């Protein structure tokens, strides 16, 4: 049976643009509203430790004002676990974070993470939050995610999406195997990072993947066609690949 594939729109980079001028415009909460109005199934934000784009108040407002599931991306730190257990989003995705990186550079090393990661998963799950771990499509990492109590993994699609189309085959094969490993381990399987119109179809065609989160491309593309149109086009590409 083919699972439905949900699209969660990441609005981080609306906040990047807002913060460039220090005011309130453009508002990531308005962008979230527009994305949901255009058919997105949920909203993703990554509250980075340095607050370079999304800020605490944005997350609070999205929780209060947007009637759609929030996927809250965060590092597995004491501060972030505290925020998540206070706001109780339906879903959290734990990601590795480096202060100097421009964006997330790889998946969590769950195998070598030590007890702090497992403890963060335990506390978040105990607050009723579905916990996902952002990992490479490596069966050993995926099985380790299941062992420490995650409900879900998000497979890192960056290397696939950033490769030239003719070089994507091996990346895609790894992602397909990773999706099979996730389901075999009893996990839900999501995918994300760097996806765009030209790369989403092959991911949407992996039947085990039940959600994709897409941000940077959609927010950039909205300059040319508007956010609602970009979300509708992405949803149409996903639907076409899924049938
Ligand atoms: C986990 C992931 O791939 C993305 O959500 C990424 O963390 C986005 O972070 P930036 O929006 O800061 O690039
Ligand atoms: N989890 C991936 C995400 O939220 C969006 O990543 P990107 O499309 O901004 O690269």
UniProtKB/TrEMBL annotation:
This is Pyridoxine 5'-phosphate synthase. Belongs to the PNP synthase family. InterPro entries: Aldolase_TIM, PyrdxlP_synth_PdxJ, Pyridoxine-5'_phos_synth. Homooctamer; tetramer of dimers. The record marks 154 as: Transition state stabilizer. Its main location: cytoplasm. The keyword Chloroplast does not apply. Catalyzes the complicated ring closure reaction between the two acyclic compounds 1-deoxy-D-xylulose-5-phosphate (DXP) and 3-amino-2-oxopropyl phosphate (1-amino-acetone-3-phosphate or AAP) to form pyridoxine 5'-phosphate (PNP) and inorganic phosphate.
């Amino acid at each position: 049976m083919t699972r439905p594939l949900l699209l969660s729109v990441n609005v981080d980079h609306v906040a990047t643009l807002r913060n460039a001028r220090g005011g309130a415009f453009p508002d990531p909460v308005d962008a979230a509203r527009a994305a949901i109005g255009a058919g997105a199934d949920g909203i993703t934000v990554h509250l980075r430790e340095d607050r370079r784009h999304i800020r605490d108040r944005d997350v609070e407002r999205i929780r209060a004002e947007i009637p759609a599931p929030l996927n809250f991306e965060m590092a597995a730190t004491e501060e972030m676990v505290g925020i998540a257990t206070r706001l109780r989003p339906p879903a959290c995705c734990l990601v590795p974070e480096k202060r100097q990186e421009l964006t997330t550079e790889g998946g969590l090393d769950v195998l070598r993470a030590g007890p702090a990661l497992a403890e963060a998963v335990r506390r978040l799950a105990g607050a009723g939050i579905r916990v996902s771990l952002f990992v490479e499509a490596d069966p050993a990492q995926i099985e380790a995610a299941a062992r420490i109590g995650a409900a879900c993994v998000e497979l890192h699609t960056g290397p696939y999406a950033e490769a030239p189309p003719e070089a994507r085959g091996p990346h895609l094969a790894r992602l397909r195997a990773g999706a099979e490993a996730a389901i075999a381990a009893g996990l839900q399987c999501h995918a994300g990072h760097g996806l765009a119109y030209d790369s989403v179809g092959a991911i949407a065609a992996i039947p085990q993947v039940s959600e994709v989160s897409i941000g940077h491309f959609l927010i950039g593309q909205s300059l040319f066609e508007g956010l609602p149109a970009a979300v509708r086009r992405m949803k149409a590409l996903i639907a076409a690949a899924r049938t």
